[in-house]
User: What shape does this take?
Amino acid sequence: MGLALDKTLVVGISSRALFDLEYENSIFESEGLDAYRQYQIEHENDVLKPGAGFAVVKALLRLNTDGQKLTEIIIMSRNTADTSLRIFNSIEHYKLDISRAALAGGKSLAPYLPAFNTDLFLSADNDDVQAAINANVAAGTIITNHAYMNPYEEISQLRIAFDGDAVLFSDDSERIYKRDGMQAFLEHERQNARNPLAKGPFAKLLMTISSIQKQYDDDVPIRTALVTARNAPAHERVIRTLREWDVRIDEAFFLGGVDKSEVLKAFGAHIFFDDQLLHTTPASQFVPSATVPYKS
Assistant: This one.
C-alpha cells in the first residue's frame, strides 16, 4: 500500500527557492539549457548556499518527531533528474529530511500539485506560481535575492505571517477600495462587519496550520501572525471572520498603511505572504517574503 499524504502538511518547493541558484539561473537565461546542464554536472559536488526558502523548510521539518510526521517537503522543479544531483547532494549535506521530488524536465509543475496533495507551493518562477494559484493551491513567488540564517542554526518555532485581503481572504473588499476609494471601503466593511469574508487562496492552509496547533497544549511549534494594512473600523470583520472559521491567529497587526517590514522583523517570520510587491519587496530585506498573485 502506498504512502498517503492527505494527513500531512505537504509543501512543494522549487530548488531555486530552497537554495541560492541565482548564478546558475543566469547561465540558463543567457547561455541556454545545455550550458546550465553542463555547469550543474561539473559542480554537482559543490554544496549550494541556502536560499530564501531554506529557513521555512528547516522550520517545517522541525514539526516532525519520531512518533509523528506532520509535514512533508517535496522538491518540485523544472530540472531534469540529470541536473538535480547537486540539489540532492546539498540536501544531504544540510541533513534535511527531504526524499521526494517531482522533476518536470522543463514542463509546468501545476498538473502534479494535486497528485501530491500539495498544501503550499513556493517557487521563484512566476508562471509556475500563477498556475498553482489558478489550480486553487496556495502558492507564492519567493523573492530570492537574500538568505536569512545560518544553515546550521537550530529553529525552535516555525513563524508564518500572512496579509489579509487577497491572501487569507478574498479580494472582494480590496477591489472596492481600488475602485471607489478608502471611505467606500470603510463604509462597506462597517456595514458588513458581521458577514464573514470569503476565503482567499491561503484560507485552507491557515485552517490546516490551526488544526496542527490545536494538537498542542503548550510549546506549540507554529506561531502565526496577521499583518494587514487594515485598521479600525475595518478590523472587526476580520476578527469575526477568523472566529467564524474557528482558526487560531496568534498575533494580529492592523497597521493602517504603516510599513510592515519592522513588524515582520520583530515577529521573526520565516516566511511572509502578501499580494503586493509594494509590501514583499521591502519586507524581503528583513524576512523571507513571497508574493501571492491574483487568480486569473
